[in-house]
Amino acid sequence: MRIVFAGTPEFAVPSLRAAAQRNEVVAVYTQPDRPAGRGRGLAASPVKVEALARGLAVLQPETLKTQLSRDALRALQPDLLVVVAYGLILPQSILDIPTQGCWNVHASLLPRWRGAAPIQRAIEAGDSETGVCLMKMEKGLDTGPVLLSLRTSIGAAETGGQLHDRLATLGAQVLADGLGLLRAGMRPVPQPQPDAGVTYAHKLDKAEARLDWSQPAEVLARKVRAFNPWPMAEAQLAGERVRIHGAIAVPVAHARAPGEVLLASREGIDVACGEGALRIRVLQREGGKAITAADYLNARRLPSLPA
Q: In the 3-class helix/strand/coil scheme, how is 174-223 assigned residue by residue?
């Protein structure tokens, strides 16, 4: 079987390894090198790094909508195109080229959380469960029929980064399962997605990571988890902007204005919310590193708290 793999970020690397186990990957598509780091020098994507380490041919077109890009893919004579967080739209003319079609590994239980940020949106919404789907691609955004899926619970304290890593591994497993069936002549049967339960995981925006203390503490605690490690929740704390790496909701009744500090101790800094309080446990001052609430209080004395 001749497999062409298309992916870009770290999430796609385990799936590339799964696809390449039997030396069937004939080429890897990934996004062009982008500026990164303080020096803004061009950096290869994690998928490109993995592909080059395996001696695989790498293609980095800016678009797949040209005749040249179609000819390049057709020349590879792919049986299957596997797409994992590639980042470019695949037109129908590309989807039609592989003889066995195009498969996509998606980090949610479709049709819930179609779109760009399914991992973070699942945590933000308070979902207790998520998973990965192996989907047969079609022109719509994550609308294709599902071939296989694997489910997993979301931990009560799990962050976006932690869930990302688990789902990346699970995605590689569901892809390996699908490839195993295809090799054995037992092609997975596509199951159309139901119309009910469709939700969209819109792309993360750095502006939405600014916490609004008037919201319930439970909502803010989920945002803190979902946006770790990016874009990382931030808020005003006693007149200072800080980034919040770890926090929990505390079901306490109070009559204070949202944003006021209710209690500061080694256990954390309790901030009044529209409902309950957010206990900040790990935070980061501007220009500093992430520290515990205890270390923060050692470095900065908060205003005296009212009785």
A: HHHHHHHHHHCCCCCCCECCCCCCCCEECCCCHHHHECCCCCEHHHHHHH
